[in-house]
Amino acid sequence: xxxxxxxxxxxxxxxxxxxxxxxxxxxxxxxxxxxxxxxxxxxxxxxxxxxxxxxxxxxxxxxxxxxxxxxxxxxxxxxxxxxxxxxxxxxxxxxxxxxxxxxxxxxxxxxxxxxxxxxxxxxxxxxxxxxxxxxxxxxxxxxxxxxxxxxxxxxxxxxxxxxxxxxxxxxxxxxxxxxxxxxxxxxxxxxxxxxxxxxxxxxxxxxxxxxxxxxxxxxxxxxxxxxxxxxxxxxxxxxxxxxxxxxxxxxxxxxxxxxxxxxxxxxxxxxxxxxxxxxxxxxxxxxxxxxxxxxxxxxxxxxxxxxxxxxxxxxxxxxxxxxxxxxxxxxxxxxxxxxxxxxxxxxxxxxxxxxxxxxxxxxxxxxxxxxxxxxxxxxxxxxxxxxxxxxxxxxxxxxxxxxxxxxxxxxxxxxxxxxxxxxxxxxxxxxxxxxxxxxxxxxxxxxxxxxxxxxxxxxxxxxxx
Length: 465
Description:
Elements: H1 3-17, H2 23-35, H3 46-54, E1 59-61, H4 64-76, E2 82-87, H5 96-110, E3 114-119, H6 141-147, H7 151-155, E4 165-168, H8 170-173, H9 178-185, H10 190-194, H11 197-204, H12 211-227, E5 231-235, H13 239-251, E6 258-262, H14 289-297, H15 304-311, H16 316-328, H17 333-349, H18 351-366, E7 378-379, H19 386-392, H20 399-407, E8 411-417, E9 424-427, H21 437-444, E10 450-456, E11 459-463
Parallel strand pairs: 2-3, 2-5, 3-4, 5-6, 7-11
Antiparallel strand pairs: 1-6, 8-9, 8-10, 10-11
Helix pairs in contact: 1-2, 1-16, 2-17, 3-4, 12-13, 14-17, 14-18, 15-17, 17-18
């Protein structure tokens, strides 16, 4: 049994039967899974390595089988398999969205392959047009230097740079001669760039599209040529850029790289938009443990599974274990969310810091009396259906959203006794949401001196009963 298989077996046992509301069990789990982030994976066969890569990918080109074959061939040729990832220094902060491909890349390092982390100081001067509706503003050399000054430190939780390479693509792009660039470009049909949906939309809308933007993917492809890349890791938004890398490598007489495109994670605001600095729905890698934990606790329950898949070292058996417990009601969503937040916090700051952040979060939020919260919206009509109350408060935009909140155990009525006694809570089931609010209070909670509240996720309203 491999090191990884043994770890997964132990963690699955914890996740399948232990009480995950207990800090002792959570610490045991985090210590076990945190060890994986530095675990030697070289005992995996090429087929097992390819499978571990495939589980993290939204698209893997050409296939899992070809990844296995190429790893095997690199061994036979007594050379290191080369995996790369590139990031342009368009801002000073690296965030959790960037961590998704970096986590996959880190597995290659632990498998014993050569990892090349490339900061695109050269390509940043052009600006990546992927997914944009207009041309990205140009960055000055001073902007680029300032932005990338701490990149290696920021990504160090994922890599051991005594074994991995940290490169700047200005090393080679600054020295590309015009004849060489024209020679490469002469073999690339314009239609290949114009296949991009974002380019087509801009052209059809009469928006400008510069030649520099068309050349971005060609310049990025020269990174792959420079390191003679076997496999490139990137987000699915980079898929067409990585296709250009394959084309340019072929033009330059090299075997085209394989492409491992990982999912984009949704931002913490729950709007459906991807995590990005421009939207402010991101978590910086440099944020303190308490901030990371708190921001992750604020995400909608539906993002717990995708975040665990993308940002942790959990394997499918472990995801399946908690999914089953959520379905049969033996695992509360809030307990799983605390585990998820702890996993990510531990990845960046260690298990001790993650457990401390967990304790501080509980002290600040879980044990806070709602009566101390000022400026809460109020509910006065107890004859109204819970569904109508939730929508009128703006806690849900539709019947479907209200029902989903109830299905996730996120819709609750809370009673706080006068004098400081413990809170009592009653879940509002999907079947209950069309009942009058007053009837549910009478049937589910005790009468007495105290205050009642309606909670939907992290949103709260005071009920004037």
